[in-house]
Every structure is written in C-alpha cells, then in structure tokens.
Design a protein that fits this description.
Number of strands of chain B: 0
Oligomer: heterodimer
Shape of chain A: globular
Helix content of chain A: 25-40%
Strand content of chain B: under 5%
Structural class of chain B: mainly alpha
Order of helices and strands of chain A: EEEEHEHHHHEHEHEEH
Number of helices of chain A: 8
Helix content of chain B: over 70%
Distance between the termini of chain B: 27 Å
Structural class of chain A: alpha/beta
Number of helices of chain B: 10
Number of strands of chain A: 9
Radius of gyration of chain B: 22 Å
Shape of chain B: globular
Distance between the termini of chain A: 26 Å
Radius of gyration of chain A: 18 Å
Largest sheet of chain A: 6 strands, mixed
Order of helices and strands of chain B: HHHHHHHHHH
Chain lengths: 248, 253
Amino acid sequence: MRADEAVAASAASAHVTIRGLTKRFTDAVVYDRFDLDIPRGKLMSIFGPNGCGKSTLINMITGLIPTDAGEIFQNYREALFPWLRAIDNIQYPLKLMKLPKAERRARTERMVARLGVKVDLNRYPYELSGGQQQLVSIMRALVVEPQILFLDEPFSALDYEMTLFMRDQLQRIFVETGTTTVLVSHDLEEAVYLADRILLLSRRPACIADYVHYDAARPRTDATLSQHDFVQIKAHCLEVFQREVRKG
Amino acid sequence: MKSTHFDPYLPIIGVVGLIVIWYLAVWYQVVDPVLLPSPVDTFRALWSGMSGGRLGFDFMRTLERTILATLIAAAIAIPLGILLGASEKVYRSVEFVVDFFRSTPASAMFPLFLVLFGVGDKTKVSVAAFGAALVILFNVAYGVMHARKTRLLAAKVMGASRIRVLTDVMLLESLPQTFVGLRNGVSLALVIVVVAEMFIGSTDGLGQRVFEAQQLFAMPDMYAAIFAAGGLGYGLNLMFLLVERQFVHWSGK
C-alpha cells in the first residue's frame, strides 16, 4: 500500500492517493488491489455493507501516516484516557510532540475558542455525557491541526438527539477548519447530509461500487433533508447499496 | 423517602443481631459456657489485650509480617506482571506455570521454605510473599493484556512510541486490576502468616496467640485474638480500597 501526498497534476485535488491496496485476514480477502483518492479539503463519507472493511481501511491509512492524521473512534467510552481530565486528554498529542507547556495551553485555548465548545474541560471523561466525550475526542484529534481527520462511526454509540446535535457540531468544525475529513458511517442519511463525496463500497473484497458527488451549500440544515437533490442522491445511494448487498 | 435517612446505619443491624444471638446462646446455655464465653468477657479480653497487653503486641507482629510479605510480593510481581502482560506470547508461554503455582496451596510449601530459610520470620514472610506474588502477578499481567485496544490504538495513531504507550496507557490501564491483585494478595498473605504463626515454631503473632489461648483453654482470649485477626484483615482490605479510590478514581466508570 502506498499513501503519499499527490503532487502530480492529474491528482492535484487528491490529498491521499492509494494504489494497489491489498489486505487479507486469515479467512478472507478484504482488499485486492484497491485504488482510492481522498480529495483535499472535502468531507468524504464511506458507506457500505457490514464487514466490508471500512474500519480496516481507516486503520490502515492512519497506521501509515500517524502524525498527520487524527482518528475518532466508534466507542467514545474507550477512546479517551479516563485518568486524565478532558483538557489533558486534548493536550496529550501535543505533549507527545514535546511542545512546551505554555504553547500546549495556548493552542488548546485557541482551538476551544474557535470551535465555541461549551464543555467544562476540567472534568474527567466519565463525568461528561457521551456527546461531550465524543466532542472531546474530536478536539483531541484536531488540536494537532491534522492534515486529515478520520471518523469511524463517531456517533454510533450516541442517542438520536445527541447524534443530530453532533452532526451539526461536526459540520461547524468542518466549515471552520476545512480539514480533509473521511467519515465512515452506517447511517445513509448522515453519510449524505455531511458529505461532499460519498464513496459506496461493495462486499468483500471491497471495491468502489459508486462515487457520488453532493455539492449542496453549507451549512446544511434540517430543511436540506427534504430538498430534491438530497432526496434523489440518497435514493440513488440506497439503490446502489441494496444492489451490492443482494450480490452477496 | 424516610428510609434513606437510616440507610447508613443498616450495617449496624447485623452486628447488633449477632451480639444479641450470642447473648441469648450464653444466657440459655445452648453451648457449654466453657466453650462460649459471654460477649462482655470477650470484649473485655480484647480491650485489655489490645491496650498495652500481649494481644496488641501480637497484632503488630502479624501486621508487620503481612505488610512486609505484601511489599516484597508487590515489588517482584508488579514489574514482572507488566513485562509478561506487555507481550501476549510471553504470557501464554508461562501462563500454565503461573496458574499451577497460583492454584497450589501455599501451606504445602511450608516444609520447602523451612528447609530454605530455617525456623524463623524469614520462612513465614517468604511463603506469604510467594503466595501473594502469584496472585498479584496474575492480576497485573491480566490488566496489562486487557488494556482497551482502542486506547492503545489511539495513542499509537497520535504518534506515541512503544515505551510511551507502555508508560502512558498500559500501566494506567492495568492499575484497577493491579489493585484487585493487591487486595487479594494482602488477604492471602494474612492467611498464610497466621497459619505459619500457629505451626512454625512461633513465639508471637496472632496465629500463635489463638493457638496458645486454645491450648490453655483461655476462651475469652482466644475469641479476642480471632476478632483481632478479623479486624486486621478487614482493616487491610479497607485501607487498600481507600488508596485505590484515591489513585484509581476512574475504576469501574
């Protein structure tokens, strides 16, 4: 697998270029010569059948480029360090970068102010709600100003009310920072609502079933959900998804 | 609700109930009075023994031995447990040996340790340390091995080196389980020390006190020594729990 920042003119808009990715687990081929370009400054959703290797893909990419990428995990309960206060969790990656204490604090404060987060960061993770914990882990990923942000079903452990709230938080963060973002989602509505590009994967070995553009203006709101192009694109994605599922 | 007002006092009911039953048993002579002295006699013996008497001295000797054994066990088992737990392959290769000796009654090791260390404090402390160390070792290794994969991965993705992952994540992840090991270890050490004090030519300690009082048929003294041993065990456990709550505030959350 090769993932480097594309410089070639043909891939000028790509942030990460993957060519010939192959991955086998003992019992199955997950990827067989898989190609993918992750577009720069866009939010790309990945949607596909269960077990097709979405999380595996993200883990492989982040494993290759750790310091330039931030990753958000499905389970907020297991992602943060419970022995550190929220603020120290956020600063931990800066500590790993050996930044002096004053700068760590300055950078964190700047980011918190910019994102307008209203969470008491002096609390321990277990004292925060699920949504707040997930927000803290997103901030922990963003504080290093990563080139790419990977989100692996970040809202799957949250209740519906919190999911809706967090969706809009994430959108705000994306609009605010313009960080290239890859979002794995199991919720088609969410995948389309947040995305500029929707990558639809097939069953194993995973290949690209379709690559859909969705260019509605941001910020998108509840009204977006009933707009014609949103409904149409969602219906199209569902159709492709169903076709892929039936193939198995 | 009204009842919540009394909730903190609920444990007292069991204690009072036990003493009442005890009194009734003595009153109606359900048991031979020689074998079962009254609560008053027993607590008088406990009080006079603990306040400047022989029992207080024996209590301190047993406490010393138990603490020393636990400290030795922890000093050996915690670093070793981390080492074993950090690599699943290493742990799997010694798992059977650890499990085997953990399941071996430590009292069966007395004769061996007697040969090694002679009749004295060394033997008592080292058998107790041996038993406690295996319990602690098992728990620490288990705690390190079962560190949440997500947190390890998160630290790695953030660019933490192997050493940083070990010190910043694995060690702290294993702390709750380490304390489980320490609490079980200190309880086991106390059991072994008391048994050793009874049978390995001892001149002091709670085990020796219980045994001697029984030989002399000084029943209030024997019961007092038993209660002292119970208090010691309970106190040690409580102490570790309090320390744990202080240092591992996230445990179980």
